[in-house]
Design goal:
13 strands; alpha+beta; 174 residues; 5-stranded antiparallel beta sheet; 37% strand
Length: 174
């Protein structure tokens, strides 16, 4: 029997647990002697900023896995904590086209070679908090500390404007 070429699949994971899921899949594959089914497991990220090694995920909540999709591989991933399933229809994992995988890998490589400039924010600008305990809150930028890549944002909590200090990566422009 000839080995099939491994294909890229997209695994849905809880947001902010992508790296943990990728590591867990690697560990379980090793423990169960299935490591040869998995060629690559990655969380597509890019470096942002120059001073601080911050990373931004291209696809929050997704882990890319290049594997031979056998029943064992499927069940290993489905039973990994914090995995909600595969990208596909009717719960059938669908491989992504090689061209799409190549584009994503290129994007990751570009981000490593050429870090994107950090975002710039201005006082008075409206932002939405995308990460941390205040996720989904909106607010107004009160202070910008470019050197530390941090902002002070006035977030409305229970009807009162409360200043919250956040990292650039935790907010997005509205």
């Amino acid at each position: 029997m000839t080995a099939m070429a491994k294909r890229w699949y997209i695994v849905h994971a809880y947001s902010n647990f992508e790296k943990k899921v990728a590591e867990s899949i690697r560990e379980q594959a090793k423990q169960r002697g299935l490591a040869d089914l998995f060629e690559e497991i990655m969380v597509p990220t890019e470096k942002i900023g120059r001073k601080v090694d911050a990373e931004r995920k291209f696809f929050p909540g997704y882990v890319l896995v290049k594997m031979d999709l056998t029943d064992d591989a499927y069940h290993l991933i489905k039973n990994t904590p914090k995995v909600t399933g595969f990208l596909g229809t009717d719960n059938k994992p669908m491989p992504i086209p090689d061209s799409e995988a190549a584009r994503i890998l290129h994007q990751v490589q570009e981000g490593i070679e050429r870090p994107r400039p950090s975002l710039s924010f201005e006082v008075g600008e409206q932002v939405r908090v995308s990460d941390g305990p205040f996720a989904s809150f909106s607010g107004t930028v009160e202070e910008v500390d470019d050197a530390r890549s941090r902002l002070k944002v006035a977030v409305s909590i229970f009807g009162r404007a409360t200043p919250v200090e956040l990292e650039f990566g935790q907010v997005e422009k509205i």
